[in-house]
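Weekend entry, working from home. Most of the wet-lab plans are on hold until the incubator is repaired, so I used the time to fold the two sequences that have been sitting in the queue since the last round of cloning. Logging both here for the record. First:
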Amino acid sequence: MSDTDTFPKLLLENASRIGNRPGCREKDLGIWQTWTWAQVADEVRALACGLAALGFGRGDKLIIIGDNRPRLYWSMTAAQAIGGVPVPVYQDSAAKEMGFVIDHAEARFALAEDQEQVDKLLEIKGTNQTLESIVYDDARGMRNYDQAFLHDFDKVQEMGRAFDRDNPGFYDDAVAAGKGSDISVMLYTSGTTGNPKGVVLTHTNVMRTAENNEKMEGLKESDEILAYLPMAWVGDHIFSFGQNYTAGFCVNCPESSATVMQDLRDIGPTYFFAPPRIFENILTTVMVRMEDAAPIKRRLFHYFMDVAQRAGTRILDGKPVSSMDRLLYALGNVLVYGPLKNTLGFSRIRLAYTAGEAIGPDIFDFFRALGINLKQLYGMTEASVFITVQPDGQIRPDTVGVPAPEVEVKIADNGEVLFRGPGSFQEYYKSAEATSETKDPEGWVHTGDAGVFTEDGHLKIIDRAKDVGRLNDGTLVAPKYLENKLKFFPNIKEAVAFGHQRDYVAAFINIDLVAMGNWAERHNVAYGGYQELAAYPDVQDIVREHVEQVNRDLASDPQLGGSQIRRFLVLPKELDADDGELTRTRKVRRSFVADRYAELIEALYSDRNTCHVETEVTFEDGRKGMLAADLRILDAKTFPVAEAMREAS
């Protein structure tokens, strides 16, 4: 494969070598449609030639926006095949956000999934100076759209087949001209601290990273994965595109975001990735259903889950387990674990990853106790995902593993994690200054994260380096660490902690509407929506208990024990990407939140017990409105180290 250095070349090789094997599937109207690798190669060829017929050429950017669809994945390879650069965009982006990417990338072409995305592009095109042609996949609702620059996907492929016949050497010559050092994809960062940056990755970056992990984990052509995470996210690009090509396994696209769990059960993937929030939601759903189950089923579940917690992870890691526990675990697999995994669609999973945030130890251990080989990894767009990963037999909830194959990792004097490896990005597009700030002349990339290595070489991430601060008395404060500990409780969906250059730590908290809603239903508490439930005194007392448990845990940490949360409030609305409070990858835009709710922060650091807030909200249909509420500011108990240790014992 030495001369197979681009994805279009690899597609041709897969079509020749494993042409009859399934390359991708999509569920449409309840029926799974399958394309073999040979069929995928034909579809990509027709699309690439069709784009060429429209004037798309070497160096052009192709904006790709929509849910996970085979045709959208094909468009990536089609653009690459004729020297272009795919630029996937988050499908829930507002027109303004999408417009920034199109302007910055100077994209002339866009491929949209459906009418909704086309409408955004039409709104942008009125002010954009570069966008010329728009191709759409789903023709529903497009009957009265008669602009000359709009093109139906099927008709573009028809144009491509005619172009291919008239120019028989064009496609093969264009593919052969590609090199591993060519730009493979441009992925925009989430823009946590400002405008997104275009991360330039080459074919070599993506392919080498995908191959190294494939060999490490033993991925095979027979594996199956469900592609349900945003195509603009680097994780989906590696798992659902890069490794799809390098390992030759099948990628399955769900019918819609609403049917993901059912489609997961249909496919029963062997390879699975989900951020911690997905695993948390699944566990919350399981526990909620068990609360509603018959008493005998509930007792059976809890008994065998105790067995699983005691023996399941040890069996998975190949460690010694007593004969009785092994027998009980086997019985539990028949009665509880097996049926539960089958219901979730997890029966065939032999490798699962989670990353992006810290995952609660209880959640992590729950899935591993069921026999699911769940691991943590640490990655970022600038690394083509993999920086560290947990090897088999070395799995723990508090670290993110050891350096990935061919990746070097070190800790700078200021505690920041640095790495370099085959996946290290080339540059930030049109931003030499930002590139030089992040990547030094020796190839070391600054992650912006603070971390430490354990004695056995595992990396532990503490917080964003720039967010680590000090209280006025010099106590270390790691806001993200505190927020993650709060979010380990299923009743808490989001948290934002403050404390730098303050006398104590305070926090904003969002409740989880599903988990708390279930509690309200079981306790006959009527409520009209999030705001009303969040203000309910008993709900706030539950949150207080969680905060105090975090404080109790912190008190045993010699470095962070002084950063316990003294005051907090429950926000009257969920933090929302549409309101600018979260990025599209669900990360808190800390500075934006601090500015927007500055009055609430000041109230947390005063002697006040209530505070009035008025803020603008964005409804699902795009309309704006105002929300007003009087909030309670709550005090939480803190614990001296000695007292915490006595209570724990």
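Second, folded right after the first finished:
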Amino acid sequence: MLVLVCLGGIGYGALKVWSMQYFKTGEMGSIDADEVIMTAPEYKGKQLNLLVLGIDYTTVDGEGAEERSKNGNTDMIMYVRMNFENNSMYMMQIPRDTFVGEAGGTAGKINGILPLAVNSGDDNPVSELASYISKNYNLPIDKYVTIDMDSLREIVDVFGGINVYVPYDLVTYDENTGAEIGRLEQGWRVLTGDSLEYFLRSRKAVGMARSDLDRLENQRYFYSALFRRAKTASVRDIVKLMPVVSNYVNTDISMEDAMGIAVKFLSIPSSNIMVCRMPVYGAAQNYNGQSVVVTGKAETAELINEYFLNENDTPLTAADITTPDWPTSGGCADAAVQWMSGIDAEGAGEAGEPVEEKADAAENEAAQQTESSQSVPAA
């Protein structure tokens, strides 16, 4: 989203030429049309289906010190459909611990597919993950965007912090000593550096009984804040963001296409942006000692039919979701469908609410709605 905002804000002409030095394309390969389901010809130019990946390269050595790994794990996996006909964007979070069996290596998790491909010397590693998602969930994928999770600190620093609504107190204690090791209180908070990382990565804070599933829901408040702030970005902000894009973002979207997509993205109102989570069950037993979650096939088919099915598509059934089986326990965690306008409304009237920022974003949104686009997005 930030890549698109950057390119859309920079515009054409000389600034476009200047921005090309920062736009890194295809270094992780490209989506292989022979390995994935592509958007049907009749929808080309009318919608764009993206695989968005946040890659965590941070590892901890034997002495507890952090260091960079060469491949990283896909810490965030999101399927995004931008529909240019009805001016909407639907996003589906895929839990990183989703069970995929041998495809995910020893741990059997979906976040292991990409690093396995990188380690094997695959020249087109991102297509391995795209292929798995496309074929097993019957979802078309046209392009991808990856972002190094380490970039979030720099992105937020460019904006001078991000005003995020924290839905409840996040408090974490050391499992061995019981000492408090992290705290972020409920309410509007300007997140930077360590506080941002704590908010986005917390899985074991008090009240987060579902671990990564609760983490995914908390991250939506950050997405909402980032969308709102990005829509008020100045040219100065954009210029400062471009080196971050160069260092940390990779995509197989051409710059020309990205600029057209950006114009469309900036016109989408928050009431037309939906975020959901792929329904999953807890595993009745670990896989090779690793805790995993298992795709709820019937529930996922229902979710895709409601939000990601085109008019002429045949509705999916549980049999069409071909992920591997594994014993499950308990009920299925639902899709937790939310609209950005609803997320934006939480915390309204509480101390610290970014009223001026929200007003600027709303004004920009309204202006974008009335402008006719001079750029046609390519699928």
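Plan for Monday: verify the second prediction. Residues 136 and 188 are 39 Å apart (CA to CA).
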